[in-house]
């Protein structure tokens, strides 16, 4: 099954998009300047300044109001952890394993951050409030039901990212509310620069990102999956969302001639083993060009599927562009 699209109507942070300016800087003669790649001039990116605020309407149209800069933030999904890491903030508690990734805090430092019991779907309200948070950030379609229980005790912010533009918007919003405006601008610029470089040198190879824990896999579509939303401009990515009930068959994937395959193995309960190994039992799997040629890449689902923020997406771009060469 495909990941469910958001039921909310997405807004856009105009400044994040309109402030994105690309300019190629080369030597007057047209030859690459010292230190520049032979393939072209270095890409320069500027971003719109972020203004500190205690009240704002976020990138999806939700009104957020705080009494002051939040000092204790509890994260109920990984985008929150991603954004806070980019801003140089450690959450008071978390509900994801993203911080243990070496691109974030790493295993040892991540152990210092308390984990909210109850799992991703049903984090315990009492445990959340025990950390006396100024702000709790969750995924709207999963944690929105917690809002009534948290009301009056803290501020709950339901985010609903669907594309990388949404993630950049949320980064800017959190930077404004925490007063980490410089860090937010730097993180946005670093990500946009990396994305611009990848888009400047797109691969002609056909790519696919799939996810799951068994043979009932799903295809990550650019309209509903943040990591997949990066792919249309960096590779041939002919996969569209088919809605909540839609799915792709191995026959259809085989027909598209996928050259590079990225696999997100999702672990649920006692499930173990790699998704690519489980799919190997299907005779059609071995006929896919990427499988036949050894170009199947099992990736970290904490980063690729759950991270969704600019730091995670930067890792996705690094790994994807390396594989697509």
If you had to describe this structure to a student in words, what would you say it looks like?
This protein is an alpha/beta fold and 325 residues long. The chain folds into 2 domains: 186 residues, 3-Layer(aba) Sandwich (Rossmann fold); 123 residues, 3-Layer(aba) Sandwich (Rossmann fold), CATH 3.40.50.1980. It has 13 helices and 13 strands. The strands form 5 sheets. A 4-stranded mixed β-sheet has the order 11-10-12-13. It has a 3-stranded parallel β-sheet with strand order 5-8-9. Strands 1-2 form a two-stranded antiparallel ribbon. Helix 2 packs across helix 7, helix 7 packs antiparallel against helix 8 and helix 8 runs parallel beside helix 13. The N terminus is likely disordered. It comes from Streptomyces pini. This is Iron complex transport system substrate-binding protein. Belongs to the bacterial solute-binding protein 8 family. It holds the Pfam family Peripla_BP_2. It is found in: Cell envelope.
In short:
The protein has 325 residues and is α/β, with parallel strands linked by helices.
Strand order of the largest sheet: 11-10-12-13
Radius of gyration, taken over Cα atoms and rounded to an integer in Å: 20 Å
CATH architecture of the largest domain: 3-Layer(aba) Sandwich
Highest CATH level, the class of the largest domain: Alpha Beta
The helix/strand order is HEEEEEHEHEHEHHEHHEEHEHHEHH
Q: What overall form do the CA principal axes indicate?
A: globular
Q: What is the name of the CATH topology of the largest domain?
A: Rossmann fold
Low-pLDDT residue spans? 1-39
Average the pLDDT over all residues and give the rounded result.
88
Largest sheet: 4 strands, mixed
Q: How many domains is the backbone divided into?
A: 2
Give the amount of beta strand, in percent.
15-25%
Give the N-to-C terminal Cα separation.
29 Å
The count of β-strands is 13
CATH superfamily of the largest domain: Nitrogenase molybdenum iron protein domain
The helical percent reads: 25-40%
Pairing-aware structural class of the strands and helices? alpha/beta
Number of helices: 13
GO cellular component, one term: outer membrane-bounded periplasmic space
Protein name: Iron complex transport system substrate-binding protein
Keywords: Signal, Transport
GO biological process, one term: iron coordination entity transport
